[in-house]
Write a structure and sequence with these properties.
Pfam families: BPD_transp_1. By secondary structure, the protein is an all-alpha fold. 84% of the residues lie in helices and 0% in strands. The protein is built from 10 helices and no strands. The radius of gyration is 22 Å and the shape is globular. The mean pLDDT is 88.
Length: 253
């Protein structure tokens, strides 16, 4: 067995052990009511998720959140890459774009949500908040990758007669892809959080709406069922984009 394969198996086992301990603690804390009625046992939450009568409710909420997540993620990713490329190709704009993206990221989403509702409407607010979260991560990752090309390689392109655009397409952009893929992976959970926060401000459907309604009606198992669904979606996206990151890292290393 190779060293790499052994390391992967060890990492997988340790990760599974950590998840198992967390789930076991969840069940024990819920059964013993160590945190009161606000922390139900995991088996009670899973039983609610497995109730066929509830599946349509969960499916509608999940579909609405995934739709907003997809739209917001794509908008944030594309705009972040374009802004980073613009800053890289036009150095005079870089400082302004860096500061603007940092300022936007520093503003809490919960403060921006009312403005988005005013200008975009309640339906578009979850996707807009997701796009903002993804934009910053994509911008930073792409900028970092584009600036990682060693100076001797840049000089070689110039010596061979390559233009600035040639260097960008054939040298800078491929070098940025592994870092960008890593940023895409990190942006997925942030995008889902943005969607859920946006749904709290009056969206008609979604996991965030389900959480708020369950909280207001003190339906604690339903609340944690929606939270568990959100965690599963986040972990699934993180894992899938991790595969993409692994492929891109091997292809463009």
């Amino acid at each position: 067995m190779s060293v790499v394969l052994s390391e992967r198996i060890r990492t997988l086992l340790l990760g599974s052990l950590g998840v198992g301990i967390f789930l076991g603690l969840w069940e024990v804390v819920g059964r013993l009511r160590l945190l009161g009625l606000s922390w139900p046992p995991l088996t009670e939450v899973l039983a609610l998720l497995g109730t066929p009568a509830r599946w349509s409710l969960f499916a509608r909420a999940l579909a609405a959140s995934l739709e907003a997540l997809t739209v917001g993620y794509l908008i944030g990713l594309i705009s972040g890459i374009i802004a980073a490329a613009l800053a890289h190709l036009t150095p005079s704009l870089k400082l302004g774009l860096d500061r603007t993206s940092a300022v936007i990221h520093a503003i809490p989403s919960i403060a921006l949500a009312p403005l988005f509702i005013l200008f975009l409407g309640r339906n578009a607010t979850p996707a807009a908040l997701a796009a903002l979260s993804v934009f910053f991560v994509s911008y930073v990752a792409t900028s970092s990758g584009l600036g990682s090309v060693p100076r001797p390689l840049q000089d070689l392109v110039h010596v061979l007669g390559g233009t600035r655009l040639t260097q960008f397409v054939r040298l800078d952009l491929p070098a940025a892809l592994p870092v960008l893929a890593s940023g895409m992976r990190l942006a997925a959970p942030a995008a889902l959080i943005g969607v859920i926060v946006g749904e709290w401000f009056g969206a008609p459907r979604g996991l965030g709406v389900l959480v708020i309604n369950a909280m207001q009606n003190f339906q604690i198992p339903l609340l944690w069922s929606a939270v568990l669904l959100a965690v599963l979606v986040s972990l699934t996206l993180f894992g899938l984009l991790g595969l993409l990151q692994h492929y891109v890292a091997r292809r463009f290393r």
